[in-house]
Amino acid sequence: MELTKELLLSAYSQGIFPMAESAYTKDVYWVDPEKRGVLPLNRFHIPKKLIKKIKSEPFRITINTAFRSVMIKCAEPSNNIDRQNTWINSLIIDRYCELHKFGHAHSIECWQGTKLVGGLYGVAINGAFCGESMFHNVTDASKVALVYLIARLRLGGYSLLDTQFVTDHLSQFGAVEISRKDYRAQLNNALKNTGADFYLMSEDAEVSIILQSITQTS
Question: What's the whole-model pTM score?
C-alpha cells in the first residue's frame, strides 16, 4: 500500500503511526501501542533551571521555517545509546514534508546565528498534536523547543499532545503512559475540536508570554 498523505492522516485519526526499521530501509510498518505516551497540556512542568535558561533567550525560535532540515536532523544517529539508529527513513521524510506543505505537520526550530541547533516536528489534526521526534546539538535546545510548542498548543486550544512513548526526557515535563483505550478516547475528543489554531500565538511572542501561557494554570 502506497504511503500517501491521505493514508497518514487516516492512520493518525485512528491512533496509528508509521515507523521504519532503520533510516536505511525503504518501507515502513504501522504501530498501535498498547500503552501510549501523552503529555497533559494542563499539567506541563518546566524545571526551574530551564525557566531561567529560557529567560536568557539563548536561541532564536522559529516556526515552520526549516521543516525538512529538522526531520533530517532527527533522522541522524547520535552518541546516545538509545538513539544510535533512528526510525526515520527517506520515505517518511518525503511524506511528512508533503503533510507539512498542506498544513498538517509543523516544526519548531532553535537557532544560534544561522545554525540550526535543535527542534521538533509533529502532525496536527484538529485539536490533537502528535509529536514525532526532536533533536538537539546544543544543550537544552530540544527542551526549549518543547516549551514553545506547549505554549502554542495551549494558547491555540489543543487538548492532546501525543508523545507516542514515554522517555526519561519527557517524564521530567509530566509525560505519562495511558492505555490504548484511554488514548483513543482522548484522541476522539481532540478530533472533534475543529477550532484549534496552531498560529494563534505570534511567532515573535515575548518570552514572558510564552512562560505565562504555560504557568498560569499549571
Answer: 0.94
